[in-house]
Amino acid sequence: MNKPYSKAARTRNFIIESTAVIFNKKGYAGTSLTDLTSATGLTKGSIYGNFANKEEVALAVFEYNFSRVNRLTSEKINQAKTFEEKLRCYVDAYRSMMKDTMCRGGCPVLNTATEADDTNSLLRDKAAGVVAAWEESLTRLIQQGIQAGEFKKDVNVRKTALSIVALIEGGIMIAKIRGDMSCMDNVLSTAEMLIDQMII
C-alpha cells in the first residue's frame, strides 16, 4: 500500500506544479518571487519554508517538466516490439505532444540549456545530464537494433543518435520562434528518414 504524502511533500508538489509553466516560459532569471506567490497563492515564507531558495524551486520544476515529457516517451517505447518501432517512438511522442509543449512554453531541456548556459551551472548541468542520457538511450537502441539484425552494421551509431536529438530539439526551437508547428513536422520527417536509412 502506498504511503500517503506528508503535508510538506504535498505543499512542495503543489509549488512545483503551480510554477512549472511559469519557469518554462520565463526562465530562471525572468521568474520572480512575486510570480511564485501569485501562481501558488502562498506567502514568501511558505515557499521558502519548503525550498531553500528560488534556484531549488527551479531545479525541482525542471525535473518535473522533463518527467512529463519523458513519461510519455517511455510509455510508447515500452509498448513497441522492435528496435525500429522504439526509435520511431521518439518521433511519434514529440509529434503528438507538440501542441501541449508549445502551450507550456516549449521544451524544458532546450529552454533551460539556452538560458543557463553561462548563468547557472546547476541548471546547465541538469540539462546536460538529460541530453547525455537521451543520447545514451538512442545509442543503446541503435546498437541493439544492429545486433538484432534490424539495422545495417555500418551505421554511425553516435552520429545518428546525436542527429536525432538535434533534429527534435532544433525543430522545437524553430517551431516556437516562428509560431508554426508545421516546421516541427518537417524536421521530424527528416528524423524518420535517418531511421529509414538504417533499416536493412
TrEMBL record:
The lineage of its organism: Bacteria, Pseudomonadati, Bacteroidota, Sphingobacteriia, Sphingobacteriales. One of its GO terms (molecular function) is DNA binding. Keywords: DNA-binding, Transcription, Transcription regulation. The keyword DNA-binding applies. This is Transcriptional regulator. Residues 9-69 form the HTH tetR-type domain. It comes from the Bacteria. Residues 32-51 bind DNA. The keyword Transcription applies.
